[in-house]
Specification:
mainly alpha; single chain
């Protein structure tokens, strides 16, 4: 534990029934952080939209890192290829990273992005069109990667069908001011 605060000397009932009902949900969280575990009050007034906004932000950051990794591999490969070098990542490695990224889109926690972010939903639609194009499929060097890509694209199509767009919620941190 840390140094005692004024909240440590107040009875739990005073905190729960006389102070907490008059605080906003962020203030309730901060008071809970300062009180011992037994005296904490559940933050039952957190709006659902704030929780969804936080999850959207976290999911977006994770997906962006995976997308950047596959884009970097593609750039490195193109750079080496344009210089006539045989070094650099193979096409198989690049396609594996792209499939890994697309499969991460299918994770259940990312369904919120499809439901509450129209830009993300449009990107998913564009990727379905891009990677179901026969010319792009023919560029994939291995048969098993073509099968994985087709299965992943099928999963993304089913995800769009089963999670319709509801409304736009701006991504933001859980404890941000607005």
């Amino acid at each position: 534990m840390g140094n005692p605060t004024y909240l440590d000397v107040l009875p739990g009932d005073v905190l729960q029934y006389c102070i907490m009902p008059f605080l906003g949900w962020e203030d309730r969280i901060h008071v809970n952080m300062l009180t011992p575990a037994g005296d904490r009050t559940l933050p039952n007034r957190i709006p659902k939209e704030r929780i969804i906004a936080n999850q959207i932000l976290i999911s977006t950051l994770k997906l962006r890192r995976l997308a950047d990794k596959s884009l970097t591999l593609q750039r490195i490969r193109n750079h080496h290829k344009s210089r006539g070098s045989k070094h650099g990542p193979s096409m198989t490695k690049v396609v594996e990273e792209i499939i890994k990224f697309l499969q991460s889109v299918l994770e259940p926690r990312n369904a919120l992005l499809v439901q509450y972010n129209p830009n993300y939903r449009d990107v998913v639609k564009d990727k379905i069109i891009e990677f179901s194009d026969p010319a792009n499929i023919a560029k994939i060097p291995r048969i098993y990667l073509r099968i994985q890509m087709a299965e992943t694209i099928q999963g993304m199509t089913e995800m769009l069908a089963s999670f319709p767009f509801i409304e736009f919620i701006k991504p933001q941190r859980y404890l941000s001011a607005h």
